[in-house]
Amino acid sequence: SNLPRLAIPVVERPTSTTLNPKKKWTPRATRQTRMTETKEEAKVVGMTPSEAYKDEVVASIRSFYDDGSKYGSLSQSLHAVQAARQAVLAGAPKEVVVGALLHDIGWKLARENPKTPNGEPIYFNAPEKGCLAEQLGILTHCAIPDGADVARLRAQHDVIGGTFLRMLGFDETVAHVVEGHVLAKRYLCHAEADYHGKLSAASKRTLEFQGGPMTADEAAIFEKDPLFEACVEMRRWDEGAKEPHWGVPTWDAYEPLIRECVVRERSAPGECAGTYERRGNEIVGLVATVTTTSPPEPSSASKEEKTETALSWAPTIPAQPCLRSPRQTELLAQWQHKGYVVLRRDEWLGADAAEALSQAVWEVPKIKYDGSAPNGPFHTWEKDRAGETVPSRTEAYADHHPVLDKFLRSDDSPLKAVVAHLAGEKVALYKDKINYKAPGGGGYAAHQDGYRGLEVPQYKSPEDRGFITYVCMVAVDASTTANGCPELGWECWQRKEGWLREIKMPDQCCATKEDAVTFQDMGPYEAIEMDRGDVLIYDNFMPHRSGVNTASEWRRALFGIYYGNETEPRDLRKLYYEREAVGRRAKGSSKGGGKANAFHTGTPVIIEP
What we know:
This protein is α+β, with helices and mostly antiparallel strands. It has 23 helices and 16 strands.
């Protein structure tokens, strides 16, 4: 009576001996073919599903995930959609996306009623007596050897989940990904020396139930799986789906895909073979050749081509480790929550590139500006601690230095790749500058980067913040509190109040002058120290400041400032610097008294071109 309405007709209720069989365990016979959608096999595995049946499947599965079950600090529903979102970001086909969404559905079957809430994390609960997996006869088709205890049964949530999805008529690829994601965890513990140490305490505990790290023989079998790479990446998505501050599309976004992946009517347990031959938690072989059950989509491609695309899919592994889960979701979550991220050198750039960047930056102050070109480079100067004239800032240098231009604007720019990932869209360079900050060089008073010109959209509300730029500060030299590292007022940023002028005058936006807000009020400010080659990224609404360089070494920082592509693309960088050439950058920044900008706290020196 507790079964969902869509469930396969109830088989004879298994006994306790079925849950923990006393008979000698033997592996099931190997199926030589998987289910395909030929007319002949459709008679065996179930006809094309009706729309009403798909509706039942979608509604019942959704109800499973609406029960508030916990996955660590998250709901299991949020864990599911975060995993699916990573599959979408990876460009996975819909079958893999739905597999990511439903990868933990096996935990739901450990209850008599999967819609019953439970306050504890779902993976710490042993199967209940009369649980859905037992009622549906799934446990009789799991390779549980003689003497297995409830922990071993709990460990096979991947097998239980894959079997259940096959019974409901899901595309075989969906079930394949679900069945393979725990094996991928065991595989990575075998293949990567430091992987086990990175697991959470809960994940280490479940690993014990799941058979521990793979043996070399198991790993060799797993690597022959046509979806090996997809299963391994699914495991990384699983790790990355644990971010309470990462907002992603809700369950509603995936229901159309769930419908598309239901390709057969229901079947009995065991009628559809699994992916692996098992001896308990150990895999001892693969089940024949994998093909798909998905119907062709409307396009010029044949059904066979679509089949090959779905089941030979392997993720493209990003060159930068920071763009691979779970690190990528950690960054996305912090970006949404605090408005900034810091990437360490080796996860986005590398030591050699950082050294080459340092050498290139020293060359920029030597590039002459004759005062006639609107595209820079625009140099400003200041006095250092010894009273010598030294470079303070250079803007618009990219057109004059091929190495730095490639670093900032090429299709394979490592900086552009990171920003595009955070922005969720293609980006273009808006401004490029270098702050040199020699010993004794000035800092910058607290401010935001407000953009009023070029007819860019202005702030309206926290949901519609108008024109947003992505400010990337690359630490060419180590950045410390002593030499004037950046400081961010991210708690103020969290309020999403828009561009707060240095002083809000009563006739502009405040009831009284006492209500006026200064940038100093936008704290507290957090110092962000960085090593050489690290990068700090924040948006233009972030209050920020930096102190004077009191150390004995330079603190150079290269900035690339990007914006998302407009509906009607304009070259905003070109437009911006054309105005700068006749404005505050004209005649050696004499309009600003030689300052890099109004917030610069150094001692400027005007050197006209």
